[in-house]
Specification:
- It comes from Paracoccus methylovorus.
- The chain crosses the membrane at residues 7-26, 32-55, 75-93, 113-132, 153-174.
- InterPro entries: Cation_efflux, Cation_efflux_CTD, Cation_efflux_CTD_sf, Cation_efflux_TM, Cation_efflux_TMD_sf, CDF_Transporter.
- The protein is of the alpha+beta class.
- It folds into 2 domains: 3-201, Alpha-lytic protease prodomain-like; 208-293, Cation efflux protein, cytoplasmic domain (Alpha-Beta Plaits), CATH 3.30.70.
- The chain has helices at residues 3-29, 32-58, 73-101, 109-136, 140-169, 174-201, 208-221, 254-271, and strands spanning 225-236, 239-248, 276-283, 292-293.
- The chain has a 4-stranded mixed beta sheet, covered by helices on one side.
- Helix 2 packs antiparallel against helix 5, helix 2 runs parallel beside helix 6 and helix 4 runs antiparallel to helix 5.
- The longest helix is centred in the middle third of the chain and has 30 residues, at 140-169.
- It is elongated, with a radius of gyration of 25 Å.
- The two termini are 44 Å apart.
């Protein structure tokens, strides 16, 4: 079983445990703010399931209908997660509005807050696992899930502190006010998740730092060529796509040009394992005197 699949299954298990704890905290206190926290955890579980499905689809090898693979499935999962986060925020805002209209003091606040704190601590630990391992495995679905959990942890800390303040001061209106703040934080989180995922769906180029590394690698490995131009890059989950035109002397044999291409591909693969590289060889009169100059 792939590491990404194992982590995605772990997210579902952790999500169910945290959801149960937060639901219990809400039942004990009747707090709208804690209810908002529990509602966000239901989204965590749903998006963890979506991430698992997307990761399994993305892991499928290329086929006749999908010659470039299924890597973008993870971006669809992240977009779906953003949509569900926004829906959860709308539900929380509705509950907060009802709370503003009928504010009331909370029951059994200490036990509920302790249980919610334990749930948040579990989320914080798993959030670190998702983001660190997701980046290492180049999985947009896992990283998006981790960032969503991070916003959940931050809002949970604020909820616990705010509910405690409401109990100490006797200001019942603080409870729905906190729920509304949680909803706004979730909305912002959902937008960021969707924006980062859409960049992948729209074939966004690699980062400037990575592009510089690619240019340097081509220049160092292309001994025997003249230049490389029209360099294009894009990424889809763990896969990076690179294509460019390589200009060689017009008298270079096919075997010699092929050997240069092989050398460049091997160097790029060492930098970016799993990269899909396409090189179009051209004679010297096609040179544009721009792009990557071969050292």
């Amino acid at each position: 079983m792939a590491a990404t699949v194992k982590i995605a299954i772990g997210s579902i298990i952790v999500g169910l445990i945290v959801l149960a704890l937060k639901a219990l905290a809400w039942q004990l206190t009747g707090s709208i703010a804690l209810l908002s926290d529990a509602l966000e955890s239901t989204v965590n579980v749903a998006t963890a399931v979506a991430a698992l499905i997307a990761i399994r689809i993305a892991a499928k090898p290329a086929d006749r209908d999908h010659p470039y693979g299924h890597h973008k499935a993870e971006f669809f999962s992240a977009v779906l997660e953003g949509v569900m986060i926004i829906v959860a925020a709308m539900l929380i805002l509705r509950e907060a509005w009802h709370g503003f209209q009928n504010p009331r003091m909370l029951d059994a606040p200490l036990s509920g807050l302790l249980i919610n704190t334990v749930a948040s601590a579990i989320n914080a630990l798993w959030c670190w696992v998702l983001i660190s391992r997701g980046r290492r495995l180049k999985s947009p679905a896992l990283v998006a899930d981790g960032h969503h959990l991070l916003s959940d942890v931050i809002s949970s800390v604020g909820v616990v502190a705010g509910v405690a303040l409401a109990v100490v001061t006797g200001w019942a209106i603080l409870d729905p006010a906190l729920a509304a703040l949680v909803a706004l934080n979730i909305l912002w989180s959902g937008w960021k998740v969707m924006a980062s995922s859409l960049s992948g769906l729209l074939d966004e180029a690699v980062s400037e730092d990575m592009l510089t590394d690619i240019r340097t690698t081509i220049s160092d490995a292309a001994t025997g060529a003249i230049e490389a131009h029209d360099l294009r890059t894009r990424h889809a989950g763990p896969r990076t796509f690179i294509d460019f035109h390589l200009v060689v002397d017009g008298h270079t044999t096919v075997d010699a040009a092929h050997a240069i291409c092989d050398r460049i591909e091997q160097a790029l693969m060492q930098k970016l394992p799993g990269a899909l590289i396409t090189i179009h060889v051209e004679p010297e009169h096609k040179a544009k005197h721009s792009g990557v100059v071969v050292i």
